[in-house]
Amino acid sequence: MHPVNPPARLLMGPGPITADPRVLRALSTPLVGQYDPWMTSAMNDTQELYRGVFGTANEATVLVDGTSRAGIEAVLVSLLAPGDRVLVPVFGRFGHLLAEIAGRAGAEVHTIETAWGQVFTPTAIEDAIVRVRPKVLAIVQGDTSTTMNQPLDELGAICERHGVLFYTDATATVGGNPLEVDAWGIDAVSAGLQKCLGGPSGSAPVTVSPRATAVLDERRSVEAGIREPGDDVADEPIRSNYLDLAMILDYWGPRRLNHHTEAASMLYAANECARILLDEGVEQAIARHELAGRAMLQGVQALGLGVFGDVAHKMHNVVAVEIPSDVVGDQVRASMLDDHGIEIGTSFGPLHGKVWRIGTMGYNARKDTVVTTLAALEHALRRAGHAVPHGGGVDAALDLYRDSTVSGAPVGVPA
Ligand SMILES: *Cc1c(COP(=O)(O)O)cnc(C)c1O
Q1: First to last CA, the chain
Q2: Is 13 contained in some domain?
Q3: Residues within a 6 A CB radius of ligand 1
Q4: Domain residue limits at 133
Q5: Residue to substitute in 11, 17, 64, 69 for testing ligand 1 pocket (most ligand atoms within 8 angstroms of CB)
Q6: Which atom of ligand 1 is nearest the CA belonging to 195?
Q7: Count of Cβ atoms closer than 10 Å to residue 46 Cβ
Q8: Backbone dihedral angles phi then psi of residue 112, each to the nearest 5 degrees
Q9: How far apart are CA 58 and CA 47, in angstroms?
Q10: Where does the pLDDT of residue 224 fall: very low under 50, low under 70, confident under 90, or very high at 90 and above?
Q11: pLDDT tens readout for residues 131-172
């Protein structure tokens, strides 16, 4: 039996990432019961902080207790009744996850697909909406499996035109890439802490527009027995208790109806993640992620490595680096971990064995972490027998930081 004494790793994969020490401290603060007035105000504060994170005035802004997919599932199982049509444009692994979860909720799932490493045009999505006539458009914003960031800014108007609810999974993007929930007309968003928000996984911030809340209200009235379930499939109660967003909103809302026992430690962590982001400023944090992402991109390119996908649509916070043909990808990853204490990511599906995914997000979107990772990668590649230019990656990254006017460090961390 080993004591819980994990090694101090530098987590530079596609998530989870090294948590901000302030978030770890928040996690170790005392538990308070959910009916304690202090907790009530902490919950209200957290809602207000996440309105700032998401760029929304939505009253219905809450945490779902669970990892990011708990947030995805809460939104989909609550908005979609059995038989409802949903359109899922799939451009990576998480698109398939949205389709699977919607299917398990009993929805009639329609997908369109684009090649991995590409994103959809608004026209392709509108054409599919016209053809499918879905109740909900469910689309991932940034899919870490391919590193692509799907532009969402034009989709709200399209959904509005066709009377479609617009949901996005912004787990991988929020806090490190632009996301304007109200300005872009998004009806439901779910996220997680373990990417650009710099926390551990285990809490899923969710926000829901008044238009989507109205759908939940309708379904809630069936559960409350106010209306009898009729022949209309949309009248069916939500097929989950734990992830019933209507109940979760009643629990967070002014009525404070009991639902689950608040996961107090995760609430502290989520609160601290949002506070850290808003202290820095959302725009400044996005600029810092953009800089770290560009430094990592130029660094790996200066090492002579190729990069996968349409780089113009890459998320700021992750890059897919092509594994040179003369090395074994997992051996280099093992050397990064064993010799340098740095974790980088493997890949799934069609990219398995072809690319490593390197993340620069949250607390780890910094100059020193970028440079340390590039130096270690150069070393691990050379040791594996692959010829790389001496110091090229580190110099490319340092030159970029030297010439930048953006602060390269999170608030409270020396640059
Ligand atoms: C990382 C990621 C998740 C993570 O889901 P978990 O349930 O927290 O593992 C979900 N969606 C996207 C788009 C992601 O990139």
Answers
A1: 40
A2: no
A3: 15, 67-69, 94, 140, 143-144, 169, 171-172, 192, 201
A4: 20-277
A5: 69
A6: 1
A7: 24
A8: -125, 150
A9: 10
A10: low
A11: 999 999 999 999 999 999 999 999 999 999 999 999 999 999
